[in-house]
Amino acid sequence: xxxxxxxxxxxxxxxxxxxxxxxxxxxxxxxxxxxxxxxxxxxxxxxxxxxxxxxxxxxxxxxxxxxxxxxxxxxxxxxxxxxxxxxxxxxxxxxxxxxxxxxxxxxxxxxxxxxxxxxxxx
Length: 122
Description:
Elements: H1 12-21, E1 26-27, H2 28-34, H3 40-52, E2 56-61, E3 67-72, H4 74-106, E4 109-111, E5 117-119
Antiparallel strand pairs: 1-3, 2-3, 4-5
Helix pairs in contact: 1-3
């Protein structure tokens, strides 16, 4: 996924994959077994995105069946503690985030020309 500036973003599911890979290299099947509810297609897409972003390396070993291992790159290892810090912050402050959302939703809405609604400012 790219934003308006062309920057690629790691999907939320990428965070789970990075956490699993922090323990060391893992096969695709090991990741699939450790992450509940993920489809093979979604796992593959996420791993490709992480590889594209330079966070994960993919190593193919010729065997029967073919072995594919994924491992964090130095960049992925550098990102990992930052992700953990953000996760910890979110868990600590989620009640305040939910409160802010409730306050936002309680504000009066102003109907715009195109029929969309926007909270009144002020």
